[in-house]
Write a structure and sequence with these properties.
363 residues; alpha/beta; D-Maltodextrin-Binding Protein, domain 2; 10-stranded mixed β-sheet; two-stranded parallel sheet; Phosphate ABC transporter substrate-binding protein; signal; PBP_domain; Phosphate_ABC_transporter
Amino acid sequence: MFKKILLCGFVAFGVAACGNGGDNTSETSVAKVEAAPSASGRDQIKIVGSSTVYPFATTVAENFGRSTSFKTPIVESTGSGGGLKLFCSGLGDNYPDITNASRRIKSSEVELCAENGINDIVEVKVGYDGIVVANSTKSDRMELTLRELYLALAKDVPDGKGGLKPNDYINWSDINPALKDTKIEIMGPPPTSGTRDAFVELAMEGGCQTFDWIKALKKTDKNTYKAICHAFREDDGFIEAGENDNLIVRKLNANPNALGIFGFGFLDQNGDSVQGSVIDDTLPTFENISDGSYPVSRSLYFYVKKDMIGTVPGIAEYLTEFTSVRASGQDGYLSEKGLIPMNAEEHAQWQSQVRAQKTLSLN
């Protein structure tokens, strides 16, 4: 069931939205735009996808709904993988028009879309996000290395003899005597989540590659490398907590010894109760994520069916608003929600591509 939310202000696609729609000049208010009749049987945008991008999409949505005569889009948080599966399942009124993603679309997903008649996809980069490993402010802040994080989470770990053993680390102090003598309890997203995909690539592989013999496997035996670096432990050291990051935050407050994995935006919104761990001597701050020094940082996207632009009313205008300087620019309102914006030059490049409705190419 799609969750209703209010959408964000704009005018016609390529023209000012909530002002100038993203030009670098100052933005001023504009009159509401009347919704055109739908060429399909539906006159309401459907959006699915990433739980990380969801708060940003809903914020844009609220402004859009207040400023226009278009119907409020229907938005659902399904996770990146789940959203892309729905998005690529078909073309038309019964399928989502847009899907949010906290990682880039995969070639296999592009192929699935093509199999179902979706050949033209517009890619929109939203900005950046850091993946945090957070705990309750009732406890001391954790300071971890990528290697320690990998050893805490991996299904199998190096045995010190050039091989592997089942992960038998129970307490953090088992990994490093300098760490807390408390049980390893980490809550994180399921395999359908883009946050999980990005965390595996950035954190798990980052820690895995600190072992030279495993790092060498990436060139000689990719399947074994992935099996070692990507597989999470299956005991209660790691707990899949679903796609609801707010639920993880609540559970951290209830269990001060536990850690949770989620996007920086949720840390930013809940900074009074949870804190981000230091990873490789770097705090997950707006500045450290923006300049790339925080090691677990990623790009955020959403994807649009080009065939539905002009078919379902409001899609083009929604794109205009989301890519406006007012929304996703460096001083845009999404930064107040925890989005790490692109620099002005990169933002302008993406804005231009979206205005031209440039179709996706993974080459």
